[in-house]
Each structure stands twice: as structure tokens, then as C-alpha cells.
Write a structure and sequence with these properties.
It comes from Planococcus lenghuensis. InterPro entries: YqfX-like (IPR055338). The protein has 77 residues and is mainly α. It has three helices and no strands.
Length: 77
């Protein structure tokens, strides 16, 4: 017996990559710890979509957000 997809295919996960990139960019200026963590999580979710580049970009931006906090010494909290 064959069941049909309910519209939740992998191509619909690109929104997570875009949202992760947006949060990563915002995290460069405002709440870098929280935005960086959110960008990393959304990037990992986006790695399951065909547009894996968006996921990697979100992960990289999230890591940059977190590294800036540690390098600057917490002045961005």
C-alpha cells in the first residue's frame, strides 16, 4: 500500500536556512549568544534540505557570533 506525501517534503526546509542566516546576521549586533545558538540549530535543521549551503552558512554565522562573544570578552552581552 502506498501513501501520499502530506506536503512536508525536504524542499520545504529551506526556510530554516534563511531564518538561521537572518538570526546569525542579527546576532552580530544584538544578543549574539542567543541568536548564535538559534542560528546553529536552524542551520542543522536546514542541512536536511536540498539547499545545504544555507544550513552551512547559518551554522558558520552562529559560530562566528559565539566566537565574537568569547574573543571580545563578554562585552556584547
Amino acid at each position: 500500500m502506498r501513501t501520499e506525501e502530506t506536503g512536508t517534503d525536504r524542499s520545504g526546509m529551506a526556510w530554516a536556512g534563511w531564518l538561521g542566516i537572518i538570526l546569525g546576521i542579527i546576532g552580530l549586533f544584538f544578543l549574539p549568544v542567543w541568536m548564535g545558538i538559534a542560528a546553529i540549530i536552524l542551520g542543522i535543521v536546514a542541512l536536511n534540505s536540498p539547499s545545504r549551503g544555507l544550513g552551512w552558512a547559518a551554522i558558520i554565522l552562529g559560530v562566528i557570533d559565539l566566537l565574537l562573544v568569547f574573543v571580545v570578552g563578554g562585552e556584547l552581552w
